[in-house]
Every structure is written in C-alpha cells, then in structure tokens.
Specification:
The chain is of the alpha/beta class. The chain contains nine helices and twelve strands. The protein has helices spanning 38-54, 91-97, 130-147, 174-181, 192-202, 218-230, 243-246, 271-294, 308-317; strands spanning 7-10, 63-69, 73-79, 101-109, 112-118, 151-157, 164-169, 208-213, 234-241, 252-258, 264-269, 298-303. α1 (38-54) crosses α3 (130-147) and α3 packs antiparallel against α4. It is elongated and about 90 Å long.
Length: 323
C-alpha cells in the first residue's frame, strides 16, 4: 500500500484523514471552473516574457546536434567523393595543398519536449488537487517550449490506454494543448514503468522527457527512469508534493483505503505512529531524489499551493527546458 497521498480515511476520527480533492472533480477542477481562462493566458504571456529574459542569448529552436550535415557551425573535413555538393568544397585548402576536401558542419535541430502527465487516481487528492496544479504546470511548460520553437507532445500516464497529443510546434498551438488537457481525469492506477516502455517504443528519436507526478510508484519509478534513460532521452521529474502528505492531520481509529487499488488498512493514529510515519515519508522522498541523481535525472520538487508561474520560473532557472 502506498503512502497517504493515495489513501482516503474512513471511520471514527477519520475526518481530515489525508488529502482529499474537496470540491474538485476527478479532472482536478472545481465544477464549472476553466483552468485555462483569459486570466491564465495573460499570465502565460507574462511568464513567456520572463522566460525569454532568463534564456537571453540562446537562439530559439536551435540545439546543436551530434549529427554532421549542412549546418552553420564548422566541425571537420573529409575527402571529396564524386556526387558531393561542390558548394561545400574548401577551396582555400585546395589552393594551398591541392587536396579536395569537403567542409562538414554541425546540424542544428529543434528540441522535442515530451510532457508525461500522471493522471492516476492519486492525482485527484491534495490542496489544490494535484492534477489541477499539474495541468497548469504542464500548460505553462508547453507554452514556453512552443515559444522556443520546440516540438511539444503531451502524454497522459496511467494504466489505461494512453491519451496523447501528437508533437506540435508553434506558439499558437497552445490552444490544442488546452483542449487536450481539459478533459483529462484522475482515474486508474499508477503504472510508470508500463507507460515509460510504451512511450519509448513509440518515440525513437531522443528528446527531453518531463514527468509530472506524485511519484507514488516506488518500484515502477526506478524501472521507468531506467527505460527512458537507456533510450537516450534526457529526463526531468517534477515531483508534486502535498505538505499534508508529510504531516497528515489524523487522530483516532482509522480505516485507510487506497484510492487506486482499494486495499484497506485499519490503524490507530497515535503520536508514536504519526512520528514513525513522518520519518518514513521523509526517507521515501529522499530516496526518490537519490534515485533521480543516480539515474542522471533532473529532480524538481514542487509543493502544491505554489503559484504556478513562480513554480515554472524556478524550473526554468534550473535549466529544465535546455538539453
């Protein structure tokens, strides 16, 4: 059974036992609420301006690749062979040495940014609900990447058939991102390894993969990160943390029910039990961070309740969208 981020309390003394979605639905938004209204879009514009200031000096849409081709940055020479484009002959070398050499250049290519959004049932919990906050973070990161002329795709991560937004490019495509994110609901179980392997099979070209999740899948997380890194992807894990998970307001006799599996646990929330839980939770979170460091994955914890634009700027300062 997972930690309290996936548990619901029932029974005597269970009121307030662990994080709940409150008035929000399984899509993470309150009834009738639009997460991507005009006010949100205005904040995205301000965020994009701030992001450009942070990234000043880097050419948008240009990342130096390891491939050699017809780029702008000189890399090396090779001998001319019939059929080569004579425009790339190095005439200065030919005049000095009499050798016909072709100039090689480093190609420039856009970055593929893949946003993997955890939509399992545990994401309905928190204050604000994790999925609501994660959708806004996802939209903001997509907007910044689209503004940089990067290719952006979004994949919903759960044990169900994956909903996906195919790679798109251009700032105006943010409306497609909004349309994709709006109907996503928090349901199903967390299967990070399964989702990662499916993603790798469908995306052969290495890119930047950003996982937004509560990471309540200890064994699956390690195997998922291994699969993504083995496939050559750069990986970042945005860890959505609810303070109520670390210090839950519990008392009395409780029946805890796993929101994803339905597994049940009866316990009495004594001071000693709560101290043991808090200690175990901190060890678990430190273990997640240590795992990411070992796997060369950028680990970025974000606490629920942080204004999304502040959270995104903090992520950009960490170089999240730079490969």
């Amino acid at each position: 059974m997972s930690l309290l981020g996936r548990l619901r309390g029932r029974g005597a003394g269970a009121r307030g036992a662990g994080p709940r979605a409150g008035a929000a639905g399984r899509d993470g938004a309150a009834e009738g609420e639009d997460l991507f209204d005009e006010a949100f879009q205005r904040r995205l514009e301000s965020l994009a301006l701030a992001a450009r200031r942070l990234q000043r000096g880097r050419q948008r849409g240009e990342r130096r690749s390891r491939k050699l081709g017809a780029g702008v940055e000189f890399a090396d020479h090779r001998d001319y062979v019939p059929g080569d484009d004579i425009r790339y002959l190095d005439w200065s070398v030919y005049q000095r040495l009499g050798r016909r050499l072709v100039r090689l250049y480093e190609e420039e290519e856009d970055l593929s940014v893949h946003l993997l959004l955890d939509t399992s049932a545990s994401m309905a919990f928190g204050s604000p609900p994790r999925l609501r906050f994660a959708k806004q973070l996802c939209a903001a990161l997509a907007y910044v990447a689209l503004g940089n002329l990067d290719r952006v795709s979004v994949v919903a991560v759960t044990d169900r058939p994956a909903a996906r937004l195919e790679p798109t490019r251009g700032k105006r495509r943010i409306l497609r991102v909004f349309e994709f994110l709006r109907p996503l609901r928090a349901e199903g179980a967390t299967r990070l390894e399964q989702a990662a392997r499916r993603f790798v099979a469908e995306h052969r070209r290495p890119g930047l993969v950003i996982l937004l999740s509560d990471l309540y899948d200890a064994e699956g997380l390690e195997r998922a990160l291994r699969a993504l890194r083995y496939a050559g992807h750069e990986v970042a894990a945005i860890h959505l943390l609810d303070p109520a998970d670390e210090t839950p307001d519990l008392s009395g006799d409780l029946l805890l029910v796993d929101a994803e599996t339905g597994a049940r646990l009866e316990l009495t929330a004594t001071p000693a039990a709560l101290r043991a839980y808090r200690s175990a939770w901190r060890r678990w979170r430190e273990g997640v961070e240590r795992l990411c460091v070992e796997r060369q994955v950028r680990y970025a914890p974000v606490r629920l309740g942080t204004p999304f634009d502040e959270a995104v700027l903090a992520l950009l300062r960490r170089g999240l969208l730079v490969r």
